[in-house]
Give the backbone structure.
Amino acid sequence: MRMGTGLIAAVRQVPPGVKVVLGGDLLSSLGNGATYPFLVVLLVRADLPTAVAAGVLVSRAMVAMIGAGVGGTLADRIGARSAVLAALTAAGICAVIMGFSIQPIVTVVAILAFTFFSVLLLSALDALLGMATPAESRELVFAWKYTVVHLGAALGAVGASITLGLTGDQLGLQILYLFDGGTFLLYAVFVGVLTKKPEAPAAVLAGIKVRTPGSYGQVARDAVMRRICMLIIVVVAVGFGQLQIGLPALVASRGQAHFLGWMAATNMAAVVLMQLPAQRWLTGRRRSYVLSLALGAMALGWALVAAWFSGLPQLVLASFIFTIGEVLFTPVWMATVNDLATPALRGRYNGASNFAYMTGTAIAALVSGVLLATGEIAALFPICSIVLAFSALLIWCFPDRFFRAPIGVASAQSNLVREVHDS
C-alpha cells in the first residue's frame, strides 16, 4: 500500500507537459527495444564484407559523438522543442528506410543517419526536460525517464521475439522497423500537438523561445561540468559500456551466450522496479556521496564478474549489484548537468554530457575489442573494478569537487558552486 501511495505521489510531482514527453519516451522505447538487437542483422542482410560492416560500427561511434554536440547547439539556437520535433521526424523516416532498404549503400547511410538523429534527440530531449522541470524535481523526472525507457525497451524486445516467431525474419524485420519509425513519428505528434495546449507548463513552451547564442567553450570553462564530463567518460568506459560490450563478449567467449538473456532481464527488471523507490530514499542526500556509492556498487559488481567461473547465479547477482549503481548514478548525473546549466546554454550542457557518454562508449568498445582480439578479455573486469573503486573513493574524499547539493532540493546554489570552483 505504501509503495502504491509513493508511486502515485511520484506521478503527481511530474509537471503535465513533462508527462506528455515521458509518455512519448515510453512509446519510442517500445520501437527501440524491438529493433536495437538487429542492427548487425541488417548489415548481414545487406551482404556487406566483414571489414565494411566493422567500419560501419566504428563510424556509428563517431557519428554519435557529432550528433550529441549538434543536438546541444540546435536546442540552444532553435529551441529544445523544435530540435526534438526535427530529430524525431528524421529518426522515424530513417528507421523505416533501414527496414525496407535492399541497397547496401542506402542501408549504411540510413543506419548512420539514424544514429546521428537519435543521439541529437537525446541532447535536445534532456535539455527540454531540464528546462520544463523545477530544480527540486529534476532527479525524479530523470528517474522516470530512465524507468520508462527500460520498461519500453523490455516490452519491445518481447514483442520483437513474438513477431519474428510468427512472421519469420524478412517480413518480421520490416514490421519491426516500420513500428519503430511509427513510434518516433507519433512521439513527434505528441510533442508538437499536446505541448501546445494552454495548460502545458510555460517552461515546456519556452523550449521554442530560447534564441541566445553561445558556445561549447563557455561550457568547457565550467570547472564542475568538466569534472562531471570526465566522470561520465570514466563510468561509461569501464561501467555502462562494458555491461553492453565487454560482459557479453566475456560470456560468449566462454561458450555461455545463453546466459546473456538472463543478465539483460535482470538489468531491465531491476531498473524498472528499483529506480523510483530508490529516488524516494535518495531525496535530501548529498549528490557527491550518492555518486560515490553508485560507483562503489558498480565496482563490486565487476569484482564478482572478475571472480566468476561458470555459474549463472553469480553472474545474475553481479548484474543486479551493478544495476544498483546504475540506478543511483543516472538521475543524479542528468539532474546535476541541468542544474549547472544556464538557460541560454542548457542545450550545450546536455550536448556535452551526451558527448562524454558517447566518448566513453567508444573507449569501451575499443578496449574490449583489443582485449577480445588478444584473448585477454578476462583481464578487463578486474581493471574496471579497480578504476571504479578508486573513482568512488576520490569522490567520497573530495565531495565539494563534484557538486555537493542535496538531491530533491531547489538548487539556487548551483551557480554559486560553479563560481567557487571556477575561481
Observations:
- The chain has 18 helices and no strands.
- The chain has two domains: 11-211, 212-423.
- Confidence is low (pLDDT under 50) at residues 197-206, 410-423.
- The radius of gyration is 21 Å.
